[in-house]
Design goal:
Mean pLDDT: 76
Number of helices: 3
Helix content: 40-55%
Structural class: mainly alpha
Largest sheet: none
Radius of gyration: 26 Å
Distance between the termini: 85 Å
Low-confidence stretches: 33-37
Number of strands: 0
Length: 94
């Protein structure tokens, strides 16, 4: 009888460890879930994410999305120009 109780306790402990818990407060990344949506959708945290959400919901067209991303890329290039290693040498392109 004692073995049966021990086996049952072990089985319950394994079930508790293996079954996923539903955390309604935060996502695994620690971001708050969107309360307004009510369906567990995480609000976008970047401008690119907001644009994708607008595209998926049909608020903007593909052309508008591409134009907005091109503008973001141009702005990013102005703010943070990318330089490849070796471009500072005169003989790098020769």
């Amino acid at each position: 009888m004692l073995i049966a109780i021990g086996a049952l306790a072990l089985f319950i402990a394994i079930l508790i460890l293996l079954l996923p818990r539903e955390d309604t407060e935060t996502t695994p990344d620690g971001e708050r879930k969107a309360e307004a949506a009510g369906d567990g959708v995480v609000a976008p945290t970047t401008l690119e994410g907001a644009l994708v959400a607008q595209l998926v919901h049909g608020e903007i067209t593909r052309t508008q999305y591409h134009a907005a991303l091109a503008g973001l890329a141009a702005r990013d290039d102005e703010r943070n120009p990318l330089s490849a290693p070796g471009n500072d040498r005169p003989d790098a392109c020769a």
